[in-house]
Amino acid sequence: MGSRTRRDWTWDLFREQLRPTDRGCLEWQRTRNYAGYGRVRDGAKWAMAHRVAFRLSSGPIPKGAIICHHCDNPPCCNPEHLYAGTHQSNARDAQRRERHRKSAWGLRLPDLIDVVSLAPFADHVELARDYRITVGAVRLAAGTLRERLSDPDLLSDD
Ligand SMILES: [Zn+2]
C-alpha cells in the first residue's frame, strides 16, 4: 500500500491530520467511527486516533488505562485535552451512557469490523465505550464473528 496511514506515525505526521477548533481542540479530519472517535491505521491494525495521539505525544499508554477527553469531544486529539483514566474514574460516566447504548448489530459495517478486529487486543470496556455499545455486545460480536470467519467455506477465495 505504502500510504501514509500505514506507516509508523510520528507526532509531527499525525499533527498534520488534525484541525484546530475555536475551543482549542485538535480534531481528527479523516475517518471517524459511529461515536465520533477518529479511526486510524496504526501499523497493521485499526486504532482510535486519540489513543495514538496520546501515545505519540506522551509515551506508552499504561496497561489497563483508558484515554479520556477533558473536552468531551470524541474526535479531539489535542494531547492537552487527553488523560489516562481508569475504569473506576470512568464508571459513573459509563453507567450514565449505558442506557443509550445499542447492540453491536446496530453498528455500521465498518464499525462492526473494527470492533471484531480490535477485540482480541483492545480492552473490551473501552471498546464498548468508544463505540457506544455494551460490553456484552463487544464480546458477542467478537466471539460470533470470529467463529464465522474461521469457517473454511468462507475463507476459500475461489
Ligand atoms: Zn479537545
Gist?
The protein is of the alpha+beta class. The protein is 41% helix and 14% strand.
Account of the protein in words:
It is a single chain. By secondary structure, the chain is α+β, with helices and mostly antiparallel strands. It folds into two domains: 1-85, no CATH class; 89-158. The chain is 41% helix and 14% strand. The chain has helices at residues 11-15, 49-58, 87-98, 109-118, 124-131, 135-149, 152-155; strands at residues 18-20, 26-28, 39-42, 45-48, 66-69, 82-85. The strands form three sheets. A two-stranded antiparallel sheet has the order 1-2. It has a two-stranded antiparallel ribbon with strand order 3-4. Strands 5-6 form a two-stranded antiparallel ribbon. A hairpin with a 2-residue loop joins strand 3 (39-42) and strand 4. Helix 4 (109-118) packs across helix 6 and helix 5 (124-131) packs across helix 6 (135-149). The chain is globular, with a radius of gyration of 16 Å. Mean pLDDT is 79; it is low at 1-5 and 154-158. Bound molecules: zinc ion. The site of zinc ion (ZN) has 7 residues, from loops.
